[in-house]
From TrEMBL:
Identification of the protein by name: Elongation factor G, mitochondrial
NCBIfam families cross-referenced by the UniProt entry: EF-G, small_GTP
Keyword Kinase: no
Biological pathway: Protein biosynthesis; polypeptide chain elongation
SUPFAM superfamilies, per database record: EF-G C-terminal domain-like (SSF54980), P-loop containing nucleoside triphosphate hydrolases (SSF52540), Ribosomal protein S5 domain 2-like (SSF54211), Translation proteins (SSF50447)
GO molecular function: GTP binding; GTPase activity; translation elongation factor activity
Protein family per UniProt: Belongs to the GTP-binding elongation factor family. EF-G/EF-2 subfamily. Belongs to the TRAFAC class translation factor GTPase superfamily. Classic translation factor GTPase family. EF-G/EF-2 subfamily.
Domain Tr-type G: 66-323
Keywords: Elongation factor, GTP-binding, Mitochondrion, Nucleotide-binding, Protein biosynthesis
Lineage: Eukaryota, Viridiplantae, Streptophyta, Embryophyta, Tracheophyta
Length: 737
């Protein structure tokens, strides 16, 4: 019997293959199956790499890069990500006691550093932390599971080399699991899966594994088999080592390896064969995982302190180090030509600011260093702004605590103070003009009018809004041109509620909140010509500008929302007035005449015009464009677009008819209906405008047993009757002003 104390680990997944006698429960190490597994699971033996470096003249940084992992932990809401991170920090010796997420003990989990997070038991900001395991440095970003905060998930994945996708053994693959998995695909992040909560009533890891294969199209296989489930969950059998592991001690810190229980031998052998067959369709497991062709599946219960240490070993064994991942920059001197970054600390500095926070000592900027070295006191250049900035202080983060460091090299994630920048800016040492590819920032779907209760707190109110905008690109602030009210926009009700609450807590400003408003858009459906002359003479210099051309729709779903094209041949309008004309059209498109919302998906083409030697000016042509737009708008047959949400509901089957009927009443379209045990899983596309207060309705329809998640899908035209209602309501509100 072998014991492994906290801070070390179970030997690597392969170690016992080389160092233990062959048992009848596994094939000979010389058999084809074992050769395959050994080849597949091969983990470099780094102990001799220093000596090898001298022989092979390997660079000084190679070994430290191989011993580095940058990982994220992503999942559906309440799958246990933060609890898992807490256990990882405990077993790696970074913290010395365990606290639960909902703060029942008055402390709350280490990674949930904001009061609000501890109270609600959800993770809002991505806290960055690091730990060491078996001589490896592991940087972990703990990401939110609520769909309102997917920008945090996107930013985290953008800078990571690998990820753990946490799935609940009871809830299985849910809508947010699909969202984060899609994000991982977009950023090409290799991943391992961890099926959590095996101690819970109804736990079924094999059902979850088949769901991952069907719904997420994962080419995956289990690398472990649980010993018992629900309240009988005792430990795990490792299908590579063919050993049973139990987690003893008050917090599961003593991992004990024993022989496989005799009554499980046949089942384990079958699962091992399944693993070998799945892998043999691919290639070596480490290579297949890094190439995103295979996903090893681990199991456990973070809450019950079981399965976390083997998962950590899996992170080291199967997820890539920084030099095994392809990262590209865009060379701004060569028309954004793609440049491969090799992750070489001896190369020129290239670092991406992927997260901003307002810390106690000013703005804290999280950086991922892709190439080169950044040192405290160095001057760096922000390529996006062209500014040269000194690095006053460099720190390594552990949730909201920090550790000062002198330098950081390629592959590392660090934070710096006092660097004025925006999220997504790229820093270099000035020798290259590279930018990292920009991150996908979704458009906000909902707005609220907010204003401070007390006029005296206006300064703090503005300070809070400015800070939140810098930190979160999906949080926007604007003014209502008619009422003068402050309008905040974001990714949903929870998103905006959290910010209103943070204004109250962190800045001591009470705010009154208006009714949530949906961010409608307007667009045109057909081509329309324009020919408008703006002429004004009132003594002194007059105004003269004529614009001629046409407007046409850009198909919905295109990335470009507004295009302006000057096709004038000759000098009918002097070229210095063309920017003013474009500005006029853009300004006019900010507010359509149907309901005053922005007009998008249109191309404006200028074909002719006329100017006057004395009376033409930028203002005259800008006004000509604005009036031309208003004149042509009706002829272009405008329609109103509304945000449509992807809604996934999980309700007991006896309520399925009532809930489906209610979705239809809300003008929703049901696109999927699956059975999951006694529950129905309904997927629907529903206009956001019809979803306010839905959680209360769902609770009353299902006796509190139904749950739902909702995320933005697309903007689509409203029906004719809804358009008439919206236009009439807009006209009535204008008439009463």
């Amino acid at each position: 019997m072998a014991r492994f104390p906290r801070g070390s680990s179970v030997p690597h997944l392969l170690y016992s293959f080389f160092n233990s006698s062959t048992k009848s429960t596994r094939p000979s190490p010389h058999s084809p199956a074992s050769a395959l597994l050994l080849g597949n699971f091969h983990l470099r033996q780094f102990s001799s790499s220093a000596a090898r470096a001298k022989e092979d003249k390997e660079p000084w940084w190679k070994e430290s890069m191989e011993r580095l992992r940058n990982i994220g932990i992503s999942a559906h809401i309440d799958s246990g990500k933060t609890t898992l991170t807490e256990r990882i920090l405990y077993y790696t010796g970074r913290i010395h006691e365990i606290h639960e997420v909902r703060g029942r003990d008055g402390v709350g989990a280490k990674m949930d550093s904001m009061d609000l997070e501890r109270e609600k038991g959800i993770t809002i900001q991505s806290a960055a932390t690091y730990c060491t395991w078996n001589g490896y440095q592991v940087n972990i970003i703990d990401t939110p599971g609520h769909v309102d905060f997917t920008i945090e998930v996107e930013r985290a994945l953008r800078v990571l080399d690998g990820a753990i996708l946490v799935l609940c053994s009871v809830g299985g693959v849910q809508s947010q699991s699909i969202t984060v998995d899609r994000q991982m695909r977009r950023y090409e992040v290799p991943r391992v899966a961890f099926i959590n909560k095996l101690d819970r009533m109804g736990a079924d890891p094999w059902k979850v594994l088949s769901q991952a294969r069907a719904k997420l199209r994962h080419h995956s296989a289990a690398v472990q088999v649980p010993i018992g489930l629900e309240e009988d969950f005792q430990g795990l059998i490792d299908l590579v080592q063919m050993k049973a592991f139990y987690f003893r001690g008050s917090s599961g810190e003593n991992v004990v390896a024993e022989d496989i229980p005799a009554d499980m031998a046949a089942f384990v052998e079958a699962k091992r064969r399944e693993l070998i067959e799945t892998v043999s369709e691919q290639e070596a497991i480490r290579r297949a995982t890094i190439a995103r062709k295979f996903i090893p599946v681990f199991m456990g219960s973070a809450f019950k302190n079981k399965g976390v240490q083997p998962l950590l070993n899996g992170v080291l064994s199967y997820l890539p180090c920084p030099i095994e991942v392809s990262n590209y920059a865009l060379d701004q001197t060569k028309d954004e030509e793609k440049v491969m970054l090799g992750g070489n600390p001896e190369g020129p500095l290239v670092a991406l600011a992927f997260k901003l926070e307002e810390g106690r000592f000013g703005q804290l900027t999280y950086l991922r260093v892709y190439e080169g070295v950044i040192r405290k006191g160095d001057f760096v250049v922000n390529i996006n702004t062209g500014k040269r900035i000194k690095v006053p202080r460099l720190v390594r983060m552990h949730s909201d605590e920090m550790e000062d460091i002198q330098e950081a090299h390629a592959g590392q994630i660090v934070a710096v103070f006092g660097m004025d920048c925006a999220s997504g800016d790229t820093f270099t040492d000035g020798s290259v003009k590279y930018t990292m590819t920009s991150m996908n920032v979704p458009e906000p779907v909902m707005s609220l009018a907010v204003q401070p209760v007390s006029k005296d707190s206006g300064g703090q109110f503005s300070k809070a809004l400015n800070r939140f905008q810098r930190e979160d690109p999906t949080f926007r602030v604007g003014l209502d041109p008619e009422s003068g009210q402050t309008i905040i926009s974001g990714m949903g009700e929870l998103h905006l509620d959290i910010y209103v609450e943070r204004i109250r807590r962190e800045y001591k400003v009470d705010a009154t909140v208006g009714k949530p408003r949906v961010n409608f858009r307007e667009t045109i459906t057909q081509r329309a010509e324009f020919d408008y002359l703006h002429k004004k003479q009132s003594g002194g210099q007059g105004q003269y500008g004529r614009v001629t051309g046409y407007v046409e729709p850009i198909p919905l779903g295109e990335a470009t929302k507004f295009e302006f094209e000057n096709m004038i041949v000759g000098q009918a309008i002097p070229s210095n007035f063309i920017p003013a004309i474009e500005k006029g059209f853009r300004e006019a498109a900010n507010s359509g005449s149907l309901i005053g919302h922005p007009v998008e998906n249109l191309r404006i083409v200028l074909t002719d015009g006329a100017s006057h030697a004395v009376d033409s000016s930028e203002l005259a042509f800008k006004l000509a464009a604005i009036y031309a737009f208003r004149q042509l708008y009706t002829a272009a047959k405008p329609v109103i677009l509304e945000p449509v949400m992807l809604v996934e509901l999980k309700v007991p089957s006896e309520f399925q008819g009532t809930v489906a009927g209610d979705i239809n009443k809300r003008k929703g379209v049901i696109v999927g209906n699956d059975q999951d045990g006694d529950d129905s899983i309904i997927t629907a596309h529903v206009p956001l405008n019809n979803m306010f207060g839905y959680s209360t309705s769902l609770r009353s329809m299902t006796q509190g047993k139904g749950e739902f998640t909702m995320e933005y899908k697309e903007h689509l035209p409203v029906s004719q009757d809804v358009q008439v209602q919206l236009v009439n309501a807009y006209k009535a509100s204008r008439a009463t002003e």
